[in-house]
Please model this.
Amino acid sequence: MKPREIVPDVHYVGVPDFDRRLFDALIPLPDGTSYNSYLVRGRDKTVLIDAVEPQALPVLRSYLEGVPRVDYVVSNHTEQDHSGGLPWVLERYPGIQVLSSEPAKPMLVDHLGLDAGKIRTVADGERLDLGGKTLRFISTPWVHWPETMSTYLEEDKILFSCDWFGSHIAQTDLFADCRECILAEAKRYYAEIMMPFRVIVQKNLDKIKDLEIRFIAPSHGPIHRDPGLIIHAYRDWTDDKPHNAVAIPWVTMHGSTALLVERLVTGLVEKGVSVFPFNMATADIGQLAMALVDAATLVVAAPTVHVGPHPMVFNAVVLANALRPKVRFASIIGSYGWASKMAEIVQGAMPNLKVEMLPGVIAKGLPKPADLEAVDKLAAAIVAKHAQLGLVK
Ligand code: FEO
Model:
């Protein structure tokens, strides 16, 4: 494979992975992914930016066959899908130096077994002159590990952002020219790994707001040549104000919880609320994560299994707690056969959510008229709370 030109002397040397369907044994990848690296050539020095997933190394090797000298490899992020190729890169170019943030250095030693003597740390704002091309290193922590940084190529106005602004898409085209596709996939990726650090992401966005950016070249998915689109979307996703929307992870065993969910969905939709119900028996957790980016309210709907919540819904609660979405209200509905501690266990499993709990509804067996009326009251309470936040038009 030959390097593919983005602008003169800046090439894509990344690897699309059309077949991968799961990341971290957790995150669904319906559209595959890519491990992007870039080659920047100045008059005097050549730099590789990021170093792909180990399984993608044969393709990186083929890109670099005709590149006899690389002086530096920038490691924007230590996670192995971008640094896994570093040991091979250090072997291929014995004189090369790894450039990383200060906190990344011990992580590169721990995770990759790199020789610390090969790693030079760069400071926030530090510049590296390659001869006609200048790299500037920008500390952008917690997108999504503590050590992450971005690299800006001043002359060509390219921001190499690694994970942030990325998306899990495998495609052969270099650029993100399908606006709807890129926003959906980038939102999924933001939701799954950046959302817990929403406030820090806001600060990172502020940090790059005065940069003149022509391209954002992330290390997953296509390159943005309309950077304003993705930056604007990140502003919306990280904004403190939620949308007039309710996310409902649910499951049912014998139909009772499903009746409560149907009643709630109907009541909310009739009042103009956007509702995102997910049957966790079949749902893609990435879709739930995306709904949690915007939702003002989370309603957990679970039947009782051996006194506790159904495990499939409980998984969703654990996920929501880990993702720390900006939800402001929550409630728990569901059903039981003879005894239940479902609601207490669910509530105890989401301490990270800074929410006001709204009265829930737990039906014994089939929901009775009084249970359904209580669900209607919950719908009305949710709408009233959303109205107080100015979310209802
Ligand atoms: Fe794409 Fe955090 O690695």
Q: What stands out?
A: The CA atoms of residues 44 and 131 lie 5 Å apart.
